Amino acid sequence: MKENPSSLEDLYESYKRVYPWHRGPSRVKRFLGWIDADELRVSFFVFIVLFTIVAFLDILVGVDPADVLVEAHGLLMDVLLFGCLILWFNLRRDERVRKRQYQEILEDFSYWIAEEGVLRKVGSIKRLLDMGGPKFLPSLDYQQLPKANFQGMDLEGVDFSFSNLNSAFLNGTYFANADLSKADLAYACLAWAVCEHADLRGADLRGADLEGIKLDGAKLGKITVGQASSIGPRTYVTDLRGVMGLTPEVLMSSNGWEDCYRDLELACGKAIPMPTDLKE
């Protein structure tokens, strides 16, 4: 039968697989563990040790204090130069790591449609925008972002093609030159959004709030995709039925509006194509 541990050392040896070495009874090991837990403490500890060794050698050899002062000035410049360089490299590295983490969240959770998933993806998009603007965003095509809140955000040139933005809050969002082709924008709030030169071909905008929206040069109407697929090409048409706040003047400032599904008040003197779901 094993005897009970009679000392702290024996007790620690009995549980050394549970407790790390710097949590044991040895004060020296605990002190070294406390230093090792922080980079600043490690640097300061190394500085103290090296300073002590150099000072001892100076006294032993009898170095002229003036020589020490000259070397100290050179060392100070080295510390300043290399310190700034290392800091810059660390900041760049941290930025790249965080950028990649946010982009991986968007890639890995692209089809996560639950509220938690949408919130995480929206948070990643906002952080990437804070880091470097729209250029830091990857392609957001086919993203599931229903009821996402992008109010007033700068999303210029971002690819949202085939994305689900159903009932999203896009008030005042800057979508200039963005790709929103075949995006689901049904019942979304696009009031005062800037969609100049954006691609809205095939987008589903049924019931959306388009009050004050800017569509100068935007592409509306038909888009054909899947020419190389096994099931053949499919054509989608921008659907503006039931939209609110859209005026004929704003609609006619876009390109291809004549091919859109729309209500009679937005006919603007052109024939309205019959939606495929009403044919037969």
Question: Could you explain how this protein is built, in words?
Answer:
The radius of gyration is 32 Å and the shape is elongated. Helix 4 packs across helix 5. The chain is built from six helices and two strands. The model has no long low-confidence stretch (mean pLDDT 86). Helices cover 38% and strands 3% of the residues. It has helices at 8-14, 27-36, 39-61, 65-108, 115-132, 248-252; strands spanning 222-225, 234-237. A two-stranded antiparallel sheet has the order 1-2. It is an all-alpha fold.
Strand content: under 5%
Largest β-sheet summary:
2 strands, antiparallel
Assign an overall shape: elongated
SS class: mainly alpha
Number of strands: 2
> Can you count the helices?
6
Q: What order do the SSEs take from the amino end to the carboxyl end, as H and E?
A: HHHHHEEH
Summed over residues and divided by their number, the pLDDT gives a mean of 86
| Gyration radius over CA | 32 Å
Query: What strand line-up does the widest sheet have?
Result: 1-2
* Percentage of residues in helical conformation: 25-40%
Low-confidence stretches: none
How many angstroms does the end-to-end distance come to?
90 Å
